[in-house]
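Lecture 7 notes: from sequence to structure.
We start with the chain below.
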Amino acid sequence: MLTELLNFELGEIMQSIEAEFEQAVDIYNLLAISYYEMGIGDYILPYLDRAIALKPKDINTLTNLGFMLNLFGEPKSAYKWLVQIEAPDQAIMELIDEIHVKLRQQEAESNELKFLLRRIEFDVDREESVHQVAAFLQNREVSVEDINHMVSTHMIQQDTILNSIAAECYQRGLYEEVIPLLKQSYQYNSNNTDTLFNLGSILFDIKEFEQAYGFLSQIQEYDEEVGQMLEQIKGATTHER
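Predicted structure tokens for the same chain:
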């Protein structure tokens, strides 16, 4: 039956439930938990969001929202719902404490990342700071999105910072992180020669010749190395045709 519901629009399902059943909130919670157990994630939060809209202080909904959001990597949102539970039991208190520790740890990591990015920006122990940020990425302690957010919010020399981190990531073999960092750097300053060269040369190495040429050809005054890459790209694309 639950899988059959997936054939219907979510709004249509909710409309039918609320028209037919007085205990719609309980049904939404049951559906959310059932879909979680089935590994179907798309419907979980919409049902819980609707349940909390109908009954803002419902303990089961608050508990399920807190549990699910924490599970989905949203501890701040989870904490917001859990602390609204009146007279929480021991299990809820332990979960709240666990999330509180996690949030404090995230705040500390965020402050450390900001500190390191500042040092890169102002060229204070730059190499060591770049190494540390790249290590955070390698150990999955921060993400590219975390770095981009911090750079866009707090830094001035955004393109220079991202270039430095991208270059270190490339040396470490963190190839999935390199291109997003460099493309974000390009968004900040499309005339930065280092960004254009780094993007072009990396794309050249992975044989994305058309994209590589697009970046390398934007360099106003290029050296022999860039000239050779441009010629090789022209030769490769001509040969392909």
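Points to note: The chain is about 75% helix and 0% strand. The mean pLDDT is 91.
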